[in-house]
Each structure stands twice: as C-alpha cells, then as structure tokens.
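Tokens for chain A. Residues wanted.
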C-alpha cells in the first residue's frame, strides 16, 4: 500500500494571508508533511528563513529528509508549539514576519501509522503526538471516573450522548484498541444515525484531552503575537468549532483597544489592540479544493496583522531583549525590512 500523503489545505490563501516576502522570516508551528513550509520557503526566496516546529518526532524525521537541500534556510525543531517563545529565544529567531498554525493532524498521522488517532484502523488507544508523554487515550478510557469521562466527551467532542457513552465505556472496561472503543460507542449510538461516523466526536474529544490541544493553542497564540515584528502576520487554519472559537475570540479581543464589559461606562481595562484583523469573515476552501481534498472541508482560515503602538514598541524591544538575553544594540532586529518599517513609522532605532 502507498504511504498516505498529506495534501496541504488553503495553500495559496495562506501565502497571501502571511504576505510572504523575499528575505522574510517565518514560523510554521505545525510543520506536518511540510507542504505549507515548502510553499513559504519558495515565496520567501531569496533569503527567506523558516523555523518549522512539530510535536511529532516522526513528522520531524520525515521533514529533515525532505528539506535536506534547504538546511541554510530552514530550522527544524521537534517540540510542542506551547514552547514557541522559548524556542525562538533559544535559536534567536525573532522578530518574525509571519507565523502559521495549521492545526490538528496530518493525513500521515490519521491514516498511516497505527497510533490510535483513527477510528478506521485497529491500533492501541494511544493518540499521543509526542510518544514521550505519559498520558494516553487508553489511560483516560480505562481509568477516568465516569462523570469526568462524560464531561470530557461533551466538552471536547460536543457529543450529545456523552453520558451514555461514558457509562458504557465504564461497563465494558478494559477497552484496549481503537476498534474496541468504536464497537462500544456504536452500541450506544447505533451505526447509521448520523452523517458522520458515530465515533468521530468521542475520538476528537480523547485526542484533544490527551494532547491538551485547546490549552496549548491559547497559550501559543499569545506568545505568537509577541514574536511578530511590525505588520507581521498571524495565520491560523482550524478544523473544528472548538479550535475556531478560540482563534476567533483571541483575534477579536486582541484587535480591540478596550475590552471592558459594555455595562461599564468608562474604560478601565487599559487594554490596547495588538492585532488588526485581515479577514473579518473566515476564509474557507473553494468547492474545487474540497472536492479534490476531502480533509479540507471543515477548514477555516483566520489572519491578522501585528500593530504596535509607539510607547508599547519601546516596551516590546526592552522585553524581547531582556528575555532573549541579548543587547539592544546587538542583532535583535536584524531583518532589514522590519527595521526599515520601524524607522519610517517611529523615526527611531
Ligand atoms: C494539519 S498538520 C500540518 C500539515 C502541514 N501544514 C503540511 O502542509 O503538511 C498538523 C501538524 O501539527 C502538529 N501539531 C499539532 N499540535 C501541535 C502542537 N501543540 N505542537 C507542535 N505540533 C503540533 C501535528 O503533529 C501535525 O503534524
């Protein structure tokens, strides 16, 4: 059987939203099969640099092979994007022109390697992106109390039958493989009551819980904003409503100068906007893309641009410099394009 290939989603739209330019520096926080990364490198040539991150060591191993010829322009790191800022400080990779998150799993993970992500292949209930992590789906399924299991399936899977599924799981323990879990869920929901497979939502919930996906996304978005240079772009592609809600609310909040509740007559929050929304409505794949790549059907792209108030600008430089333990007159702002824009806008540096 041929190895499954990951077809990147919304590639042209991503490059446009990132406003990729020659000589720019970019971060792909979810390298996967490297499709987006390759296109970013191509559009940022000559002189472009890319930091590619993935929590899955297998994805990194494959990427090292496919990007062998680009070792001067690409830095590949096997880590969780929740450590984004620490990674950038460690490798002095900041500020950047654009940061991409293409969330979720690649086709290789879903279909390829028996790690328990798919309800269509028999595999141990694992679901860890990083095999060094302790918590597995098997542990959750076989050890969590029924109420906790039900809460998790409802919250992360938005599953209407969460309590019934949790009860049945507890009755049928131990559940060892993906297909054993599918049978348990089917005994609750029945095989043909929905457009989607009956196990879809429970599997999504377990995967999110095992990898703390939503918590990590929230933390990483905050870090990403601070790493963007003036007019740097943040682009996120999400595949389900829980992720998209986090991205939408984050970008909306960060694009406002005041986030006080409407009931408060004068502003007390002292919040200042750090982003400007690029697309007020989400970008979705064309019917032709959905037809040629089924995986793209639920994709939603949101993009925003870093804005920096003058007084905040000084603080950011100070903070970046002290956090990164480099001197202000060193090479922190080394990208000429950013430097030029900062000079023009603030007549400083
Ligand atoms: C949809 S795929 C990305 C595909 C990629 N854009 C491409 O063109 O091939 C998502 C990737 O993100 C990785 N990933 C998911 N959550 C992560 C996290 N918190 N930290 C780092 N990588 C993560 C997964 O391991 C997977 O390889």
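Reply:
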């Amino acid at each position: 059987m041929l190895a499954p290939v990951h077809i990147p989603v919304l590639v042209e739209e991503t490059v446009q939203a990132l406003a990729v330019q020659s000589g720019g520096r970019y971060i792909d926080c979810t390298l996967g099969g490297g499709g987006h990364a390759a296109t970013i490198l191509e559009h940022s040539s000559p002189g472009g640099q890319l930091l590619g991150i993935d929590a899955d060591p297998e994805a990194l191993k494959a990427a090292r092979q496919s990007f062998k010829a680009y070792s001067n322009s690409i830095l590949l790191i096997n880590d969780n994007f929740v450590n984004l800022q620490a990674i950038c400080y460690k490798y002095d990779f900041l500020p950047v022109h654009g940061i991409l998150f293409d969330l979720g799993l690649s086709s290789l993970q879903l279909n390829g390697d028996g790690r328990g992500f798919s309800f269509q292949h028999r595999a141990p209930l694992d679901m860890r992106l990083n095999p060094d992590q302790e918590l597995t789906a098997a542990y959750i399924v076989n050890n969590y109390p029924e109420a906790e299991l039900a809460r998790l399936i409802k919250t992360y899977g938005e599953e209407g039958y969460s309590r019934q599924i949790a009860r049945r799981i507890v009755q049928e323990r131990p559940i060892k493989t993906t297909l054993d879990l599918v049978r348990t869920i089917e005994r609750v929901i029945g095989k043909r009551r929905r457009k989607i497979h009956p196990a879809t939502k429970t599997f999504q919930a377990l995967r999110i819980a095992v990898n703390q996906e939503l918590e990590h996304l929230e933390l990483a978005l905050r870090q990403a904003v601070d790493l963007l240079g003036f007019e740097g772009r943040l682009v996120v592609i999400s595949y389900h409503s829980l992720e998209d809600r986090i991205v939408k609310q984050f970008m909306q909040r960060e694009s406002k100068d005041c986030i006080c509740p409407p009931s408060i007559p004068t502003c007390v929050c002292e919040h200042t906007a750090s982003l400007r929304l690029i697309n007020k409505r989400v970008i979705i794949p064309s019917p032709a893309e959905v037809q040629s790549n089924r995986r793209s059907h639920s994709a939603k792209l949101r993009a925003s641009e870093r804005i920096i108030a003058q007084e905040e600008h000084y603080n950011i430089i100070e903070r970046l410099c002290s956090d990164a333990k480099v001197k202000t007159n060193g090479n922190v702002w080394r990208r000429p394009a950013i430097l030029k824009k900062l000079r023009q806008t603030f007549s400083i540096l």
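The pocket of S-adenosylmethionine is lined by residues 6, 8, 30, 32-36, 53-56, 59, 80-82, 102, 104-106, 129, 216 (CB under 6 Å). The two ends are 58 Å apart (CA to CA).
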